[in-house]
Design brief:
The complex is a heterodimer of chains A (355) and B (468).
Chain A: H1 3-56, H2 62-68, H3 74-87, H4 90-101, H5 105-112, H6 118-128, H7 134-143, H8 149-161, H9 168-177, H10 183-190, H11 198-205, H12 211-223, H13 230-239, H14 243-253, H15 259-268, H16 274-287, H17 293-298, H18 305-315, H19 320-331, H20 337-354
Helix pairs in contact in A: 5-6, 6-8, 7-8, 10-12, 11-12, 12-14, 13-14, 14-16, 15-16, 16-18, 18-20, 19-20
Chain B: H1 2-46, H2 52-55, E1 62-68, H3 75-82, E2 90-97, H4 103-110, E3 113-116, E4 129-135, E5 138-146, H5 151-161, E6 166-170, E7 175-176, H6 180-190, E8 194-203, E9 208-210, E10 213-216, H7 223-245, E11 256-260, H8 261-266, H9 277-292, E12 297-308, H10 314-334, H11 345-360, H12 362-378, H13 384-411, H14 419-431, H15 436-452
Helix pairs in contact in B: 1-7, 1-12, 1-13, 7-13, 7-14, 9-10, 10-11, 10-15, 12-15, 13-14
The chains are: A mainly alpha (355), B alpha/beta (468).
């Protein structure tokens, strides 16, 4: 082969050697930086821990404490605060929050919202959730328009923490426009609000066209056990052909005991799709309405195994009659599937109940 | 005639050179993608609290399937550890696959098991189930005894019996981090299109293990296991993280993997008697489920969630690598429709072809390349200088890649806390290129030959087990 190749490969070899050396230096430097950072953090805690705890149980002005901490130590302060903001409760938590709400840290975080670094923005959004003022809510609502997923998500969570429920429609509208957000991810953000969002969500059900958003709303209404949405949910249940919507609506009915929901469940116990029958049996089991006793008992003879099992599970301790019937199946020596299911369910429940 | 042979050999050497350049460049590209993916993942995690899942009752119920065959040595400790995982609602289903040792008796006795009638779910056809037991002292433990049918069949029985939203398959001898269920289930909570999730597996040899948990991360004493530490870091940090960006995860480790139960049933579970069933199921899920839902996603979380025992003898290592190679070939051959299929986007156009050319044919090309290279050196078709320089470049390339993966590890999870270990990892990253890589290449080459010339057996894996 030509010597030109040798030269080329020698150059490559040299570059690779440089890279190898560079990488090793990188790793050692990273390790060193982390080591220094950890030491600084430890030093910060050992120096300031007593001051912070002392502040919690005294009348010290929060600004006085914050002004004593040098700005270049803020990152250690924030990571320290985060642990306690998450774990403390009651008066201690309120007092700790004052370190953010009633000091210069408030302006510090507001200013950080405009930084280019996403990491800093996210940190600011996270801490702003402890400052419950209209100004902060407005700033956060503006941040909702940022295209970045992490910023959007953290902002929604902060708004949830601040109970800024009036913005829920805006959040849902913006969520619909973002391709990266799925039904589950929207739900996992919005579920952090409290039940004040329920009336707005119920109203939205009347006009919402997106199946995903409707599903999210029904799940939220189920989660908060919001009974006033029953009428809207029944509408969806009877006029939607979508299986997921029907199952989610039935699950909601399991949380709301009402004559209308009992009648709806009676109807869906005979639905052609087994998954829907299973959901209906589970919902009946939840509300425990014995007027549906016969409808449940008969389901053990359903052609689908899942439905039979769910029926047997519900029959156990649902009513005296259903439990007696289940025992009858269990004692039947025929070896029929219903008998096997009944035996299994009774044994399982009894063994686990005795535990 | 000699001239013709000489020019063929020379062209082949050029081809090998190009091949090495291509694979090296792909790895470099993957490292950048991995870096991006890891950074994104860690930023997302920074302000996330996994335990939110508990508080909001939005968790998915999990069925943890543990296929067990002749696991009497460690089954009790393993199950005890699994019973203490952090998760609100999960059920452990241990499937005894017709063990010839005392596995079943140990389970029955230690966990106070009572036989209950078997409910004949037949979502997936399997070997006969002998008995099902539930445990008086552990409500969430079910033991199943079945006739021997292999790992895939045992998992399928577990799937039939399970009722969780998610299925996690875990090897009886794997060590799971306490919060691993939370981490593995989170992608499903955030995105309904996720159908399977894999996590990072690390080598447990040398680590201190107490009551089924890794309590201190140390490097193994055996050099063979040490090489595998760097190899695993490289494979998970580079490969899987990089392919994740392209929605192209083609393999999830069989030691610990998580699936949406409904989707597993749709694809009829694991393929019985298949070598490398863990890769095959993932490729099949891509092929079948992405037809139905193009957004279907197989995800990977870079967190080290599972620790496994690495072989410490060349005999067992060779069996393992041959099996992996055969598994790769089977999975790719069975689903060759994916090759350059634009319907599967980057997976079909880049990832699958990469696996075919570099993972399936790679060992054969590289091994033949080495042989021809040395032949041409002996017969003077290339100069010694050129040969030495080329060999050094290839080795140095490997060193750089291994070092890059150590950097990624240091930037992210820092599982090896002592600086001495870090220096040792450097040394290993360099040394593995002098012999270990060639050795595993040889095993994979033999594995390919065995596959194409008839021997498609699983190969038995002996494990020493962990002492607690």
């Amino acid at each position: 082969m030509a010597t030109g190749y040798n030269f080329f490969i020698l150059i490559a070899l040299f570059i690779l050697l440089i890279f190898a050396y560079f990488f090793m230096t990188c790793v050692l430097t990273i390790r060193l930086i982390n080591h220094i950072r950890n030491k600084q953090q430890e030093k910060f805690i050992s120096k300031w821990q007593d001051h912070i705890f002392g502040y919690l149980y005294s009348n010290l002005n929060p600004q006085e404490l914050i002004s004593r901490i040098p700005k270049n130590k803020y990152k250690y302060l924030f990571s320290y605060l985060r642990t306690f903001l998450f774990n403390l409760k009651g008066d201690d938590l309120d007092r700790l929050k004052q370190l953010i709400t009633e000091t210069s840290l408030r302006e510090y975080f507001i200013n950080k919202l405009n930084k280019h670094s996403r990491k800093k923005q996210v940190e600011a959004i996270y801490f702003l959730r402890f400052i419950n003022t209209e100004e902060v809510v407005d700033l956060l609502v503006k941040t909702l328009k940022a295209p970045n997923e992490l910023i959007f998500r953290t902002t929604v969570e902060s708004l949830a923490y601040l109970s800024a429920y009036k913005n829920i429609n805006l959040i849902l509208d913006l969520s619909k426009k973002r391709k990266y957000l799925t039904k589950e991810s929207i739900l996992s953000m919005i579920i952090k609000f409290d039940q004040s969002i329920c009336p707005i969500l119920t109203k939205r059900l009347e006009t919402e066209k997106s199946t995903d958003i409707i599903l999210v709303i029904i799940t939220l209404l189920w989660h908060f056990k919001y009974a006033d949405a029953l009428k809207n949910i029944l509408n969806i249940l009877f006029y939607s052909g979508n299986k997921d919507l029907i199952i989610e609506s039935i699950r909601y009915l399991g949380e709301v005991e009402n004559l209308d929901s009992v009648n709806a469940l009676r109807f869906f116990l005979s639905h052609s799709k087994p998954e829907i029958r299973v959901a209906a049996i589970q919902a009946v089991g939840k509300i425990g309405d014995t007027s549906l006793e016969e409808n449940i008992i008969i389901k053990i003879l359903d052609p689908e195994l899942e439905v039979k099992i769910e029926a047997a599970k519900t029959m156990y301790k649902f009513s005296n009659k259903s439990e007696y019937k289940l025992l009858e199946y269990a004692n039947n020596p025929s070896g029929q599937i219903e008998s096997i299911i009944a035996k299994r369910i009774i044994m399982e429940k009894r063994i686990l109940e005795n535990d | 005639m000699i001239d013709i042979i000489r020019s063929i050999v020379q062209y082949f050497n050029y081809f090998i050179l190009l091949y090495f350049l291509a694979i090296g460049s792909i790895y470099i590209l993957l490292s950048f993608l991995s870096f991006y993916n890891l950074k994104r993942y860690l930023n997302n995690q920074a302000f996330k609290d996994l335990k939110d899942v508990f508080k909001l009752k939005k968790y998915k119920s999990i069925s943890l399937i543990v296929p067990a065959y002749n696991e009497e040595a460690g089954i009790y400790t393993s199950i005890l550890a699994l019973l203490q995982l952090e998760y609100p609602e999960y059920k452990i289903i241990v499937v005894n696959d017709g063990s010839k040792d005392q596995t079943l008796n140990i389970l029955k006795e230690k966990f106070d098991a009572v036989a209950v009638p078997y409910l004949p779910f037949d979502h997936i056809p399997t070997e006969k189930v002998n008995a099902v037991y539930i445990c008086k002292n552990h409500k969430n433990l079910v033991i199943v005894d079945k006739q021997n049918g292999g790992k895939a069949d045992a998992i399928n029985v577990g799937i039939n019996i399970s009722d969780g939203d998610l299925i996690i398959v875990v090897d009886a001898d794997s060590i799971i981090e306490r919060d691993s269920l939370l981490k593995m289930s989170y992608p499903f909570v955030e995105n309904e299109n996720v159908i399977a999730v894999g996590g990072t597996v690390r080598i447990a040899n040398g680590c201190q293990i107490n009551k089924g948990y890794v309590t201190s991360v140390d490097l193994p004493k055996s050099w063979l296991a040490k090489f595998q530490v760097v190899e695993y870091i490289r494979a998970f940090m580079f490969g899987r993280n990089g392919f994740q960006i392209m929605d192209g995860i083609l393999i999830i480790s069989g030691a610990f993997s998580c699936f949406k139960r409904s989707e597993l049933i749709k694809v009829n579970g694991f393929l019985k008697d298949c070598i490398g069933e863990d890769m095959e199921i993932i490729v099949r899920m891509h092929r079948l489920l992405r037809k139905e839902n193009p957004k279907a996603l197989i995800s990977f979380i870079p967190d080290p969630v599972c620790w496994t025992e690495a072989p410490e003898s060349t005999k067992i290592l060779s069996r393992q690598r041959k099996r992996w190679q055969k598994g790769t070939i089977v999975s790719l051959m069975l689903h060759k429709q994916l090759l350059f299929n634009p319907r599967y986007r980057l997976l079909g156009m880049i990832v699958f072809p990469y696996f075919v050319f570099f993972e399936m044919f790679g060992p054969v090309i590289e091994a033949i390349g080495y042989i021809i290279f040395f032949i041409s050196l002996i017969f003077g078709m290339v100069s010694l200088n050129f040969a030495l320089v080329l060999l050094s470049a290839a080795i140095l390339y490997g060193v750089v890649l291994s070092l890059l993966s150590v950097i990624l590890e240091e930037l992210t999870f820092r599982k090896y806390p002592r600086t001495l270990y870090l220096i040792e990892l450097f040394v290993i990253a360099v040394l593995e290129n002098f012999g270990y890589r060639q050795l595993t290449l040889w095993y994979r080459f033999i594995g390919s030959l065995e596959y194409f010339f008839g021997d498609r057996k699983w190969g038995h894996m002996e494990k020493k087990g962990f002492s607690s």
